[in-house]
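Predict structure. Chain length: 235.
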Amino acid sequence: MALLSVNSIRVFYDKIEALKGVSLEVEEKKIVTLVGANGAGKSTTLRAISGLLHPRHGEIRFDGKPLISHGAHEIAAMGLVQVPEGRRIFGRLTVDENLQMGAFTRKDRREVAADKEKMMSLFPRLRERLKQIAGTLSGGEQQMVATARAMMARPRALLMDEPSMGLAPMMVEQVFETIRTINAQGVTILLVEQNALMALSIADYGYVLESGHIVLSGKGAELIDDERVRRAYLG
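Prediction complete.
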């Protein structure tokens, strides 16, 4: 059984239907990517899964448990944590305070300290900037903070929304290498990404979303070789 399953969800913004029966599955410890053009519904899908939007129809399950009746904070506490588009860090707090916010619901202080040390190993640059105001960091460093903050919650699965947006090419490569590393540690990842080639190259499985519909799915390598995907998204 998939760790995360989305079955025929329909999401509306007022009377506008943004998702028109989207279904997908994410197996445990896999990387699954959702690609598509701007406005296709990728971020809306993640927001529906994380409880920030509420589908009018359909079902979402995480580890067999229904999610639609739960709030975003409850879903995060279950181990399904989102790294939002645009990073959305606490810009007036220090890097250290941002990481502490990621562990806000946890009571195991010793383990929290150990996990923070793991984040310093994963993102060595953050060790030098722990006392720096997070809003003064570069875009790449802020993405590190956003990802590390999510990891401090000890997620079973991460929802990552456009993690490479606005970053320099060298930093983009580092972001994707970090995603691989996190996944290798046993964290399941559902990735939304404009850079379809990079996303599909690391994905075990992928879905193509167009105008609120899933129009294509398959293994990441297969989708890279699919002429329709290459023509529409890979240039």
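Summary: The domain at 4-79+155-234 is CATH 3.40.50.300 (Rossmann fold).
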